[in-house]
Design a protein that fits this description.
Structural class: alpha+beta
Radius of gyration: 14 Å
Helix content: 25-40%
Oligomer: single chain
Number of strands: 7
Number of domains: 1
Strand order of the largest sheet: 1-2-3-4-5-7-6
CATH topology: Aminopeptidase
Largest sheet: 7 strands, mixed
CATH class: Alpha Beta
CATH superfamily: Gcn5-related N-acetyltransferase (GNAT)
Length: 143
């Protein structure tokens, strides 16, 4: 899998990320479009994993603090799930974070995806909460 990244909202990489997010969050999970595309769009780095030149997985990173990255909008196209693409993407991001001396990665995981993140070494922090009507828990991984 090839992984590309951008901060440019006019980039084809961002557009590919947005397309996957729209398919997963808006169409599959019925998240309102105005919630899915938010005011942090221009403050994040977008990552897209490509298989045979087709975008299949995405996430964005918000640099909340100098030593902390916050993953958001992790999404895999329905036809590409359970093939390890999201794991590969997160591993690559974690490697980049280590190179930049980032100490912590956080994310707000949908409860239905919590076991996936636990297997990657993330730990649950705090109580359950609702985001866009979907149950979540904050998770953290120290690098």
């Amino acid at each position: 899998m090839d992984i590309l990244q951008t901060t440019d909202l006019n980039s084809p990489i961002y557009q590919a990320s947005l397309k996957i997010r729209q398919e997963v969050f808006i169409q599959e999970q019925n998240v309102a479009p105005e919630i899915e595309v938010d005011d942090l769009e221009n403050q994040c780095t977008y990552y897209v994993g490509y298989v045979q030149n087709q975008p299949v997985v995405t996430t964005r990173v918000h640099h909340e603090e100098p030593n902390t990255w916050h993953l958001q909008r992790v999404a895999t196209q329905a036809t590409a799930r359970h093939q390890g693409y999201a794991s590969q993407l997160l591993s690559a991001i974690e490697a980049e974070a280590r190179q930049q001396n980032v100490q912590t990665i956080t994310l707000n995981a949908q409860d239905q995806a919590q076991n996936f993140y636990l297997q990657l070494g993330y730990e649950v922090m705090g109580p359950q909460f609702l985001d866009a009507g979907i149950k979540h828990h904050q998770m953290i991984k120290n690098l």
